[in-house]
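Quick start: read one record
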Amino acid sequence: MALANTDPAEIRGALETWLAERLPGASITDCDVPAASGMSNLTVLFTATWSDGQETGQFVARVAPAGPSVFPSYDFAREAAVMNGLASAGVPTPVVRWVENSPAVLGSPFLVMERAFGRVPADDPPFTAAGWVLEDLTPALRGELCRNSIEAIASIHAADWRTLGLDSLAPAAGADAGSVYDADLARWQDFYDWARAGDTNPTVESGFAWLAEHRPADDRDPVLLWGDARIGNQLFGDDLAVNAVLDWEMVGLGQPEADVAWWLFILRHHTEGIGFPVPEGFPSRDEVVAIYEKAAGRALEHLDFYEVWAAVRLAVIMHRAGNLMIELGLLPPDAPMKFNNPASQLLAALIGAPAPGGDAQSFIGNR
């Protein structure tokens, strides 16, 4: 089956046959493909029964794109190992039940995890412009939401990735802990070379040059990094507790500042970057640092450097998103988004580089 559409009936039939090989007598009683599945993976929600109807479970399948994608590759086995390891350590991550590497079932590889429930602060329209975070929460409750979000990040960093059997995330044998950033930087430079598809992005390249010039000396032991640390990747319960930490495509090792800086930069992107105020009750930068340091029991260092690192990475992703949307016919060939977007504008401001000319373009709606 080539996943050329998102027809739930087609997906349900293929999944049901596949699932019956893993759960005796399995059948799928409902199947839904949310419209807002994101640009990186397709999300499929389904309920299954098995053992002659005696057992029931709710699951989520995350399916890699069958065609053009945001990232050059997807490693579901790595994601599953991280999520299951963290779940065993008490971090609120969904348990992955199966990884299917063959594209024969749904047109591309996928994983199936147990479903977690809650509300997610949306990206489009952004939670800073509309939705339940603004409409249902008081400023005090927004502060609690953010505190819980940041404390969940600290819990990820507290997990011992070696004890959890995640040594494969480390650089090649023989490299010392100080080379983790080098390995990550090299991956992102390779990602940029792929994402730009022959373009030259002066802002991104100025960002890489700035990073090379300002890299701090750092010999601290690396921690497990979520990579995409933001409230838009967390499911919150009615009590605002974090029920699940989602989206692990960018998982890796590094310094904790990288995740905290990403959290801060995404908030900046969703406010200053697209012209909305920070919601009342959200913590200031200093307050975010204080919340994290109290939860983690460690001080953050070099946060300014890691905020630029976050800006560079998001600008690279936006360049790829621009090329992808052009390739899919969602933007005209001369669309400026890949060069001029809120991330690249903010990056230029952070490093004192010339800003891309003209108006920034973003796929985020409700501007």
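The first strand starts at residue 27 and ends at 32.
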